[in-house]
């Protein structure tokens, strides 16, 4: 049960961070927010590793590098999608990233139970239903869906290598991940040269977003030690439910009945996976 609880904790941390970060990104720009979020994340995990003491002992933590490359590209697409469309639409589609680690896990020998397979199907179907927008009686694909799809692919290919790195040493793997992500965003900043200035209050909030995102990375990597990648990844991928609920509560975004059904189906999947 512990790996599944850790994965659920990761989804909660990511859900909050992925609401606040893109919300600030709408005002200040994606690269500016992502840059300072990575700085905050590196500071947080660097301090944690320093306090813990000891260095890396296994080369497998380097799997966090491809995880960071894919995950950071996915996160950039996610922020851009959030700027183009409603959070309550874009976030659930990104949650379909669970398809990638599920396929990877089953292909590599994971053997989930029948109930857990049903839970995986419920969770994936739930985030799909939550992506459908109904306007004047006509169902259509909402704005930002294309970018959300790219985010799902990028984030999906984050899970398997990060799972492998986390098995070796989840603290050091998380540090490698966050440092690589900062390098990727810093390269984009150097190429695009956006204004990086933020007011002090906004800077503190964005740094905390990075800390929350990093907490999610650490919890997911920690869940990798004893959990199947096809299960922990699905549970960690339900962060869009948190984001949708926050958007509905804080921004008063309308959540259609079909989308609410998707959220309920996703939560049912969580229960089945946890059995």
Topology readout:
Layout: H1 2-28, H2 30-52, H3 64-84, H4 87-94, H5 99-107, H6 114-129, E1 132-135, E2 138-141, H7 145-156, H8 159-192, H9 200-223, H10 229-236, H11 239-250, H12 257-274
Antiparallel strand pairs: 1-2
Helix pairs in contact: 1-2, 1-3, 1-9, 1-10, 1-11, 2-8, 2-9, 3-4, 3-7, 3-8, 4-7, 4-11, 5-10, 6-10, 6-12, 8-9
Descriptive report:
This protein has 275 residues and is an all-alpha fold. 77% of the residues lie in helices and 3% in strands. The protein has 12 helices and 2 strands; from the N terminus they run H-H-H-H-H-H-E-E-H-H-H-H-H-H. The protein has a two-stranded antiparallel ribbon. It starts with a helix and ends with a helix. The mean pLDDT is 83.
Q: In what range is the share of β-strand residues? A: under 5%
Strand order of the largest sheet: 1-2
Tally of helical runs: 12
What is the CA-CA span between the terminal residues? 8 Å
As a whole number of angstroms, the C-alpha radius of gyration is: 18 Å
Label the structural class: mainly alpha
Assign a percent range to the helix content. Answer: over 70%
Order of H and E elements: HHHHHHEEHHHHHH
Give the total of beta strands: 2
What summary fits the major beta sheet?
A: 2 strands, antiparallel
What is the overall pLDDT average? 83
Overall, the morphology is globular
Low-pLDDT runs of 5+ residues are: none
